[in-house]
Automatic annotation (TrEMBL), chain A:
PROSITE patterns: STAS. Residues 2-113 form the STAS domain. Pfam families: STAS (PF01740). Coiled coil: none annotated. It comes from Micromonospora arborensis. It comes from the Bacteria. This is Anti-anti-sigma factor. Transmembrane segments: none annotated. SUPFAM superfamilies: SpoIIaa-like. CDD domains: STAS_RsbR_RsbS_like.
Automatic annotation (TrEMBL), chain B:
Coiled coil: none annotated. SUPFAM superfamilies: ATPase domain of HSP90 chaperone/DNA topoisomerase II/histidine kinase. This is Anti-sigma regulatory factor. Residues 40-139 form the Histidine kinase/HSP90-like ATPase domain. It comes from Micromonospora arborensis. InterPro entries: HATPase_C_sf, HATPase_dom. Signal peptide: none annotated.
Amino acid sequence: MERVPILKIGDILLVSIQVDMSDQTAVQLQEDLAERIVDTGCHGVIIDITALDIVDSFVGRMLSTIASISKVLDAETVVVGMRPAVAITLVELGLSLNGIRTALNVERGMELIAAAHADELDYQLDDDPDAETATP
Amino acid sequence: MTAGIDLGHPQAQSVRSDEDVVRVRQLVRTVAVAVKLSLVDQTKVVTAASELARNTLVYGGGGSVEVATVENGRRKGVRIVFADSGPGIADLDLALTDGYTTGGGLGLGLSGSRRLVDEFEIETSPETGTRITVTKWSR
């Protein structure tokens, strides 16, 4: 069975799916990613699907599941690089990819994650009464 | 891998594992490209084939897929037959409803793939299993 590699770039895990995944490969990726998020403490996951010809209901569900798992593990998932034909087909198939953040490319995906993480830090600071002296 | 494919004859692929589902996708794409479907139509028919081949495996207990080119005057198309000798579909109307599933999936395989193709036929019975024929025509 083929395995999809997971790269760590700074505070982000980058997954670029380059193969036509079997269902088993997709499930394996889910498990590998959950482990890597915990091992690295990364706050963001970018899944690049530029190379995918199709996203069927199984892969769609995998993307939703990865987003949910990473949320629970304090990481934000962004799916990037969806082809126009894939987007059209997904909608007609009836798959809404609920709960999945998307961006057009890896760069914008990184910006989205950085912004989400910054918001979260602000929120934590606001919540902490001791932090008030530190923030003018 | 799919080089030297003879489009004059239907191509058969058995479906016994999820690796075979990948092979079905590749076979359907090759034929869809050969009959000059648009990129969106290629994507739709390959996606439908992926859903239906997975159904053949998961619900039909495995089976076979046959991919052929068809012609209707000026238009060409790809016709795919998915056959299994599984238990058949008990309630076809219900099975074709969005969101209905007996297998823990999303319930979009059958209903969704019907929307992605131009022609969609099902024959199913507990004795003979299920046979689904879909066709996608070039525009």
